[in-house]
Amino acid sequence: MELIRYVKIPLAESRAEPDSHIEYALNVQGPVRSWTVWRRYSEFQALAYELGREFPGARPPAELPPKTLTSWFSKVALAGGGGGGGSNNAGSVEFVEERRHALERYIQAMIVSDDGRWRASQALQRFLAPAGKGAARQQQQPPAAEDSGAWLGDQRGAEQMLREVRQSILRRENALARNEVSASHQSLLHAKRQLADLARLLKALELRLEQLRPALTAGEMLRRQDMLMRLAEENANLSQLVAGDAAVGSGRTDRAALLGSDSSTRLIARAAGAASPAHRPPPPAPPATAPAAQRPAPRSRRVFGNVNPPQETNETRGLDAQGLLMLQTERMREQDHVAAEFSALLRRQREMGESIGNELDLQNHLLTDLDHDMDRTATKLAAAKRQASNL
């Protein structure tokens, strides 16, 4: 289908066949031509249902206006049936106008949305196709091929959701490093919601893949099953990571271990020394427990030349080599972004300094010229005094 620039619904008309109803005129503007499509409200509802099947778990950019009890009265009044008064007729016309504007916002929001999957969806293309071409296109393209393409699109959407979950977890860790408790909590809740939506989407993809089994080859079926399995494993790993983050109360130990601070190293060494049987005092002497547990603490201080073993964190726990590489790449990208912002700030400061220096040079030149002018004026005044004395 050609690219659609915008969709307008300028008017609504009442129809008596096959039953009393109201149809809305959709003026569709393409890059070259435009056409008009007539749709009734039930067809808008069918479009919303098809979009829900095509993109399970996703919400459209705008909501479809609900079907209220006054819709039946509006149809009857505009169709000329029933002896309603003028006030009822005016109220019905107002209701239809409100619905017309709401339907226009519903369609136009999908056309101009930043998420291109809505305007590229098969359901919306069939809905806005010129009269007589939607059915022909549906006959030319088998439903199995259409569903197969939609399945791949949803699978790419699931991969994008996984990337967004990782970004939410990284934002939480950065907020914890800056001691921003509220921001870290919001990022954690956002990651949980994304994981719940992702789990529903993966379940729907699994069911739809079973329905597509007769239309796919054995190799393609195995390939898609492997894709689903990888997505499910990554979803499980991220779910465990988020659950582990939620179980940590303050998050100080996590943050300290992530940053590699000396205090966390001493805390781990102290805990290891307290739990070690070699440093545990005999049971009959409980007062000696505390000094024995604290005695190994000075030994755990970092000495030049000694390398502490890397500690596992909740962020890296459950990640494979590919996941660790992606995490490191994200961290390096964030550091590059911060460095770029700092470089831009330094560049602006340098430009301001150069501008101030140029202004000072200009003022110095002006002061020098003023000094020369004063010297010339003094010379002329002296000559004038001599001439006055001669006179």
UniProtKB/TrEMBL annotation:
<dbReference type="GO" id="GO:0007034">
    <property type="term" value="P:vacuolar transport"/>
</dbReference>
<feature type="region of interest" description="Disordered">
    <location>
        <begin position="131"/>
        <end position="151"/>
    </location>
</feature>
<dbReference type="InterPro" id="IPR001683">
    <property type="entry name" value="PX_dom"/>
</dbReference>
<keyword id="KW-0175">Coiled coil</keyword>
<dbReference type="Pfam" id="PF00787">
    <property type="entry name" value="PX"/>
</dbReference>
<feature type="domain" description="PX">
    <location>
        <begin position="2"/>
        <end position="135"/>
    </location>
</feature>
<dbReference type="GO" id="GO:0000329">
    <property type="term" value="C:fungal-type vacuole membrane"/>
</dbReference>
<dbReference type="InterPro" id="IPR000727">
    <property type="entry name" value="T_SNARE_dom"/>
</dbReference>
<dbReference type="GO" id="GO:0035091">
    <property type="term" value="F:phosphatidylinositol binding"/>
</dbReference>
<feature type="domain" description="T-SNARE coiled-coil homology">
    <location>
        <begin position="329"/>
        <end position="391"/>
    </location>
</feature>
<keyword id="KW-0926">Vacuole</keyword>
<feature type="compositionally biased region" description="Pro residues">
    <location>
        <begin position="279"/>
        <end position="289"/>
    </location>
</feature>
<feature type="compositionally biased region" description="Low complexity">
    <location>
        <begin position="131"/>
        <end position="145"/>
    </location>
</feature>
<feature type="region of interest" description="Disordered">
    <location>
        <begin position="271"/>
        <end position="320"/>
    </location>
</feature>
<dbReference type="GO" id="GO:0097576">
    <property type="term" value="P:vacuole fusion"/>
</dbReference>
<dbReference type="GO" id="GO:0016192">
    <property type="term" value="P:vesicle-mediated transport"/>
</dbReference>
<protein>
    <recommendedName>
        <fullName>Syntaxin</fullName>
    </recommendedName>
</protein>
<comment type="function">
    <text>Essential for proper morphogenesis of the vacuole. May exist as structural reinforcement on the surface of the vacuolar membrane and be required for maintenance against rupture by osmotic pressure.</text>
</comment>
<dbReference type="InterPro" id="IPR036871">
    <property type="entry name" value="PX_dom_sf"/>
</dbReference>
